[in-house]
Amino acid sequence: MHFKIKFLILYTAIVFSNCKKDDSFKTGVDLETLAYLPDSLLCTATKEVPGLGAITWKANCLSGLVEDKIILTFVTYDDSLELNIRERLVLGRIPQKTGNYSIEPITHNELFSTYSTWLADGDVLNAGWNSNDEKQNYIEITAIDTITGLFEGKFDVYFKMTNQGIPSSMHSEYINFKNGNFRAKYSK
Description:
The structure is a single chain. By secondary structure, this protein is mainly beta. The chain has one domain (34-185). 9% of the residues lie in helices and 50% in strands. It has an eight-stranded antiparallel beta barrel. A hairpin with a 2-residue loop joins strand 2 and strand 3. The relative contact order is 0.19.
């Protein structure tokens, strides 16, 4: 009898010691579907709040060149006619050539990524995230035409919060964008 009790206590201790507690804050506000403009230059991805769920995410692609590197911005809007920006996912300092590139924490010289949510008419920062350096973040440029500026690719980015939103609009600590695909065009 004592053997069974000791075994049960040992087994329970092993099981509970292997449980990892997730203390990160999660909220469904980060899984709301927002609007985008019908266009041929779009991004799709799976937007995930770990431990809470995921949605299919679509956004418009805006891009340009800064110091011969591509800055790629994905934006979503509220559903009003004013088209107020609600989300911005930025991938910056992308080389103008095909290849697979690792996304690093923000510096002035490396490829980086940020994500943010916006309020009012799209000009008031609500919350911000930087790429999570504990995860494998990448962008792959699969096709590029440097004459027309059209380019395509895919990405996976994992974000960790750096700036919590206003108290009435709390956001999740971690947000991921997986299996992202895009088609964009930059102007010279």
